[in-house]
Every structure is written in C-alpha cells, then in structure tokens.
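Comment thread on ticket #2218

A.B. wrote:
> Attaching the input chain for the structure job we discussed in standup.
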Amino acid sequence: MGVILKPIDVVDDITQEEFREKYLKPRIPVVIKNMARKWPAYQKWTLDYMKEVVGDVTVPLYDSSKADPSAPINASAAEMKFGDYIDLIEKEPTDLRIFLFDPIKYAPKLLDDYVFPKELMGGFLDKYPNMFFGGKGSVTFLHFDIDMAHIFHTHFNGRKHILLFDYKWKERLYQIPYATYSLEDYDIEHPDFKNFPALDGVEGIECFLEHGDTLFMPTGWWHWMKYLDGSFSISLRAWDKSWAVKAHSLWNLTVQRKFDSFMKARFKKRYMDWKERKAIQRANNALQKGLPK
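C.D. wrote:
> Ran it. Output below, let me know if you need it in another format.
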C-alpha cells in the first residue's frame, strides 16, 4: 500500500467565497498560482536582490542532523554572514537552511513588495513575516507549526517539493510527545515500512512549488519540505477563528513548550529516549486500531 499521496488542488485565481467554502472551512490545502504574481516581489525577489538589500548580518543555520538531546529547542548548527550563505546556495547543494530569521527587519523596504491576501480571509498576524532559505537538497523535517496558524507560503527563485498530512494522522506519523515534529529516524520521502509499519497506509498530499506559487496550508497540517533548488519562501500567517484552535496554540506555546524544555534540561538523553519509545508505541497502537477512522 505505502504512503498514499494525491496531488494538491491547483488554481490560477480564486474568489473569497470559493476559497472559504472549498479550502478554509474544510481545512484543505490548495496552491494559488497568480496571487503573488500581482506583487512587486514576483519580479524583484531573487537571491541576489535579497543579498543586496539585507546586507552582511550574521544568521543562524540549521542542518538535517538529528536533534541533540541536551540542546535547546531550535538550536542552530552553525552561523554565517547572510551574503556568504546566499553565495553558497547559488553555487552548490547544501543541507544548510535559514529559518527563524527575519530579513525584513533588516530590510524594511521588503514590506512594500508583497500584499497580505485580505481579500481571502482576515486575522493576519505578523508585521514582519518569517522567511525561509535553503540550498538544493536541503530538507525541512516533518512537523506542524506550533502556533496552529493558517499559512500562505509563497516560494521564490526555484522549486520546492512538499508533502502534507492532515493533523489527524499525527500518531501514525510517529509524533514525538510534547513536541510538534515526528520521529527523526525515518525518511517520509522513502519510508521504511519494515521498521516503521504505521506509515503504511498514511494518506497525504503532494505538492511542487515554483517561483511565485502560493501554498495555503490550513491550521495543524503536517509538512515536509525539500528544496529542489537554492531558493526561499515567505510565510504569511493568520489565526483560525476557532477558539479551540487558539486554545491549542496557547497550550503549545506556553505549558507544553515550558514543560518540554524543563524535562530536556533536567533529564537530557533519558527523556528523549523515552519520548522516542512513546512515539513508536503510540504509532503501533494507532495502526492496530486502524486509526484515524
């Protein structure tokens, strides 16, 4: 059977009514081809342009290595000048990525280059949205966003391969307890069903983004991303109207994160080993019960 992937819905343009009824309310992902083509960024945003306007600020870099049990959450693997990093991903493959860094704070004129899609929905959160950069072949591990926001994720300067899974599959994806990511010992692109049998039969959506494409990712959707070229993206986040989703977000960001950080600092590898065993146990139980229904 394997992981069952269907292609994502793709539209050129979409009305507010169609977006709300077909994608926002049922929380189904969609790619909107023309949304960002109306932005100045569609013509302007290249790697060289980013290098020019952001300058030589030092940025944290992340790789694909397994998380260090003793390190804080989102600890970086290295640092580099932003311009040097852009040079690197322009000329060769690398697994080094930039995230949790906001170039727009260093180059406020970028604010004039994009438009929040308020014609589709309200509730947008960030004055300075997050941007993400990756070298060819770099991978963002399978996870969902801790704040449970809706995401409009627009890609620039190359291609990106994305796998998406509804939140209901979290146990079968080997979610780590008290975390928003999966067990790091398997490759969702090439699953090992012998060692990770719960992945067999998991249903997801496959997506390929090109320059200027916008992916709408509803709240809670798991995502795995692979940069097929040295390229970058911007994510515009918006609240879901549901108070249950907002409460879940608040729990994740406060109680769960603080508890997990305390346990990691106190028990280190022993705690992480327990979490991995628990993820496997939960996945096997979900598989035996045929979850999700």
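A.B. wrote:
> Thanks. Noting for the ticket: The chain is about 30% helix and 25% strand.
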